[in-house]
Amino acid sequence: MRIALAFLFVVLLAAPLVYKRVRAHNVASQAGLTQASVLSRYGFSFEESSKAAGIDFKHTCPKLDAKLQHIMPQVASMGAAVSVVDFDRDGWADIYVVNGGEGSRNALYRNQHDGTFRDAAAEVGLADVNQPGTGISTGAVWGDYDNDGYEDVLIYKWGKPELYHNDGGKHFTRVTEQAGLPKWVNANTAIWFDYDGDGKLDLFIGGYYPEDVDLWHLKTTKIMPESFEYAQNGGRKYLFHNLGNGKFEEVSEKLGIKSRRWALASVAADLRGTGYPDLFVANDYGVSELYLNEGGKYFREAGKETGIGYAPKSGMSAAVGDVLNEGRFGVYVSNISEEGVLVQGNNLWMPQAGHSAAEPHYENLANSMAVELAGWSFGVQFGDFNNDGFEDLYVTNGNVSLDRKRSYWYDYSKVAGGNKSIISDAANWPPLDGRSLSGYQQKRVFMNDGSGQFKEVAQLVGVTDVYDGRSVALADFGNRGALDAVVANQNGPVLFYRNTVSPGNHWIEFKLEGQASNRSAIGAQVRVFWNGQQQLQEVSGGSGFCAQNDRRLHFGLGKISGIDHVEVRWPSGKTQTLRSPKVDENHKIMEPL
Amino acid sequence: MISQASAAVERFFSTENRYLPPIFITLILLVGQVSFGVLESFSRTLLAIGTAIVFELVLTKLIYHKFPVLASAYITGISVGILIRSPEFWPYALTSAIAITSKYVIRWRGRHLWNPSNFAICAMLLIAPEFIATLSIQWGNTVWPMLVVWVLGAFITWRVKRFHITATYVGSFIALAGVRTLITGHPFLAEVAPITGPMYQLFIFFMITDPKTTVKSKVGQCLVAFFVAVAEMMFRLAQNVDAPYFALTVVGPVAMILDIWMSSRKPVAATAAAAVAFPK
Q: Chain A contacts of B189, Cβ < 8 Å?
């Protein structure tokens, strides 16, 4: 009996080692594949092509108040961001990237239609926007707030948010004061959406640090979160209602948005089929929040009611996707996972069966769908990379990469577990001292097999960088039916992953333009019906982490060469049906009047 | 009537009540979960508890041909369920299984040497760090929940005659936090911060006071608590995130071996008198 017991004990101890060995063997057996093998196996491959594409941009970090010097790389660890826009209406997606050093310049890469880009930011007046005293850019979102046909841009900052009007795709005029934007917001997220369906784009800005904190001139070091998972001492939220004359009215409190959690990401989508966009906010140091839109008149925070507001984590990014081709959105939220220290796991909030669409309840299926562990995750986006008809998932990650051999995690976890009075004072935080904090991490590309399972293939399909990834944006930059990815890295280069898709799978794209609705068509939903299934996508005014995908919607279709029909539901409430549109084409759709 | 009720309360809060610690730990769990959602999930914690109980039942029946009192297995399971975090289910079951099995395998002169859950958590941290982490977050951002736990915990450990262990450890931790500050130059508050977290409440009220894996004399118990704190300081200076678990894993069995050896040299009656009333 004793021998049997000892044997059982050894088996129990050995079980994880055997499991790891089997798993490592499976991965190793797939390593070293040729591109042809990768294409045949996974249907796509990425090639980092920034140099060939003429994108030569390196993000720089700010130098904040000297009182934060001992933890500067950690505090100044956010700000790299990318958004995609066709700012000159030439039918080709362009790229805007922001910078973080005082006096550094942002870049607007104009698509040259030949696979290359040229920086036109200085030419159009969008480069020199990080002057000392005004703060530094942390992101940009594009939307045609005045419905003149050209996408305007809000550059949000740890500093003064700036609104620029697009003058016919040739120049941008600063209109911040006329618009009535606040003097200072330490923002890490902003999105355009038409919350009340009046045909004019409204604006949400989420504060991270409180708005009375000037990170370059601190009055106190008590600026940090009061808790690692329950903090409510962050920045306020702003909801700007578009009045239609270039002016905005701040209505957040009036409409029920009063949170002071540390917002890092927001995404708006009509999650309930009401015709009005709901607002999902992913918060660092706490639970996410879901603001249900009550007819454009009020937002009701329903985090607990819908199941997403219980387990506090470190929400970094949020994106919506119709993961199972059911015509319903799931919401993916990135968090932190560090081996042996903190395993929060990312969340994939999927609508639970048995609940009405109007009163949804969500269940975190990240684990069972194998998209849970992705390191210190930041930017995420859904997109069908291999055109097989199912939305895949791109996750970038990595926090602070300094000394590879020394980690700050011990000291970080030490103070993170402390009481409010300890953690909230930066003076109590041990110095970083050149150490890394979840640095040099491998990225994740999760391939959706359509049956509820994802397979992680990043290293195999060519996503091999280990920069501190922040922001990811997707677009078909070559107008060839393949979703490329642009990644902005903190204190690192912008990467351009050009996608090669295996021939055979079909696709269709839609560029929408509103007439009664906002002209950017943000909030318009498109459902493609084919092969007995449907896929839902929505034009977004910002998603992921400090990012915005191209407004043009891309659907992979698999081997099927024809589709049944397409339904478009505009933000105005109008619906439109397209019968058997041609596949492998980009369709421009104007909202019918 | 009143005296009967009073006697019942007295019995409930006595060292004879094997179920007092399980009731208390369950209370902590429920308060923590309802207030702050400290658990990874109820299902994972139940899996840890269920596995511990099943292993305890089966192994006791097979080896001793009797049914065990399950309070100890319940504490082991619930400790595992609270203290580890993993997105997977299997680490909860496996950690509990290792914990219970270790009690029956690693024994010397009839006593097991390690606190079962502490041993199993350390083993998992060493062999499967990709899949688990320990609870290292806060319970809220105010001191009130901690005060409630401290008051309740102090009362219970005092009733079961174990408070001196907890007090020695806490005092040593705070003093040694000052020593660490002198060595590292880090703020004293940063060094003290960990003890305000929930992991430590379980550690100071349940792990280091576990009667089956502590020495028998009161002075010895205080000495062991002090040396655990010293070992923890060493692990902390080596920047080990899970310092308290490893400290107890190192110091605990050494103390036990010494205690067993010293007890073997004393008359039997003296040894029996030092028996404690905590459940197995």
A: 418, 421-422, 425, 428
